[in-house]
Amino acid sequence: MKKKIPLMALILWAAFCFCGCRMIRIEEEERRPLEYEVLSQDAVPAEVLSLVEEKKTKEFQMTYQAGKELYLVRGYGRQMSGGYSVQVEEVSQTSNGIFFKTKLLGPSEEEQGGEPSYPFIAVKIPYSKKPVQFW
Asked: Is pLDDT above 70 for 81?
């Protein structure tokens, strides 16, 4: 019995190492700016707004493809007051990935208070099969 335990542990370890999830590593190389359009809430497709509504209470990030366009959406979850906004810091690409960096900006002292808000941003880029890295 005692001899079987190390053997089973070795088999489980090998199965864990050689099977399971696959990680995609985006190799770093010089990033090139990618042309994008920040969308007003009225310009975001209804399907995307529906998904945002489902996810808005917690932080989220998602991509949505429609035709020849790819939508990158980043939400910051429930904030205790209004007046928050989201700023795009970078939309760029390499030969094997797209990078989308945003920043949550807090309200000024005059804008604090009131109802909770759910800030998010949506940008539109040309469709690409490359993986998207949110940060």
From this structure: yes
CB 75 within 8 A of CB 52: yes
- The string of DSSP codes covering 61-108 is EEEEEETTEEEEEEEE--BSSS--EEEEEEEEEETTEEEEEEEEEPPP
H or E element in which residue 85 lies: strand 85-94
**Cα separation values, 100 from 15, 24, 48, 83, 122, Å:** 35, 17, 17, 23, 11
**Max CA separation in the chain (angstroms):** 71
Cα gap 23→2, rounded to integer Å: 35
Alpha-carbon torsion (117, 50, 64, 41), positive or negative = negative
pTM of the model: 0.77
What are the tens digits of pLDDT across the range 25-45? 555 689 999 999 999 999 999
